[in-house]
Design brief:
Strand content: 5-15%
CATH superfamily of the largest domain: NAD(P)-binding Rossmann-like Domain
Distance between the termini: 13 Å
Order of helices and strands: HEHEHEHEHEHHE
Structural class: alpha/beta
Helix content: 40-55%
Number of domains: 2
C-alpha cells in the first residue's frame, strides 16, 4: 500500500475492524474513500468539515459522536521564506496543524475517559524538531503539536487515554501536484530525516523501526489497555514519538 494519498490510513483501520469516520473538505473524495472501505468489507461514514475553522471542527466533533481512536492527520504546509509569508499563510497552517487537534482533543477525549480509555495519535513531522528551509510556520505548528502530545499524555494518561505522535519524513503525493516544496526544501528535509533516524534510538539502543506511517498509526491504536488493567500506583504517561521515512519513488 503506497502513500499516494491519505486514504491508506482509514482503510487500514477499517481492516482492523474499526468503524471509520472519514473527514475532509472534499465530499467527492470522502465518498470514494467510504466506498473503497465498504467494498473491502469495512464500515465507514463521511463527515464534511473544514478543520481550519474552529466552529466547523467543533461541529464535526459533535457529529462524530463517541470516538475511541482519534487520529489528528489534517495538515497543510506552505514553504516560503519568512519575508515572503502572509498573515493568511500563518493563520491557515497554525489553525489546521495546531488548533484543530487541540479543539478535537478538547471535544472528544472527555468521552474516551468516561468510557474507560482511548487513543490519540497526532501526525507530526521530522521538521518539527530540526529546521528545514522555508518551513518556519509549518515546523513551528508541528512543534507545538509535539509539545501538546507530551502534555496530553501526562494530563490524560492516568485516566486511560494514550497519546502519541508519528513523525513522517518526506513523501511525494500528499498534495494534488505531489511535493509542494522546491528542490532546496526537499533536500533539507531529506537531510534532517536521515540525521534524526541516526540519532533516535530506543532505551535498548536499537534503532527505532521505520516504515509505513499508516501502519504506525495502527500500531499505536492497538496498544491501548483498559483503564482497569493499568497499575494505579503511577501515571500512565506515554507521549512516544516515532519518526518514519519512506523513500520517494
Amino acid at each position: 500500500m503506497t502513500l499516494t494519498d491519505k486514504r491508506p490510513t482509514p482503510r487500514l483501520y477499517a481492516a482492523e475492524g474499526a468503524k471509520v469516520i472519514v473527514h475532509g473538505r472534499n465530499a467527492e473524495r470522502g465518498a470514494k474513500t467510504v466506498r473503497d472501505i465498504e467494498n473491502a468489507g469495512g464500515k465507514a461514514r463521511f463527515i464534511a468539515a473544514d478543520l481550519a475553522d474552529a466552529t466547523d471542527a467543533r461541529r464535526f466533533a459533535d457529529a462524530a459522536g463517541d470516538v475511541d481512536v482519534l487520529v489528528n492527520n489534517a495538515g497543510i504546509y506552505r514553504f516560503a521564506a519568512t519575508a515572503d509569508t502572509t498573515d493568511a499563510d500563518f493563520d491557515e497552517q497554525i489553525n489546521t496543524n495546531l488548533r484543530a487537534p487541540y479543539v478535537l482533543v478538547q471535544k472528544l477525549v472527555s468521552g474516551m475517559i468516561a468510557r474507560g480509555g482511548g487513543t490519540v495519535v497526532n501526525v507530526s513531522t521530522v521538521a518539527a524538531s530540526t529546521p528545514a528551509a522555508d518551513a518556519g510556520i509549518y515546523g513551528a505548528s508541528k512543534a507545538g503539536l509535539d509539545l501538546l502530545t507530551k502534555l496530553w499524555a501526562d494530563e490524560f494518561g492516568a485516566r486511560g487515554v494514550r497519546v502519541n505522535a508519528v513523525s513522517p519524513g518526506p513523501r511525494n503525493g500528499f498534495g494534488p501536484n505531489g511535493h509542494t516544496g522546491g528542490d532546496r526544501q526537499r533536500r533539507d528535509v531529506l537531510r534532517l530525516t536521515g540525521r534524526q533516524l541516526r540519532q533516535r534510538r530506543d532505551p535498548d539502543r536499537r534503532r527505532r523501526p521505520t516504515g509505513d506511517p499508516p501502519r504506525r498509526l495502527i500500531r499505536f491504536a492497538r496498544r491501548t489497555p483498559r483503564a482497569a488493567d493499568r497499575p494505579r500506583s503511577r501515571p500512565w504517561c506515554t507521549s512516544r514519538e516515532i519518526s518514519v521515512r519512506r523513500a520517494a519513488r
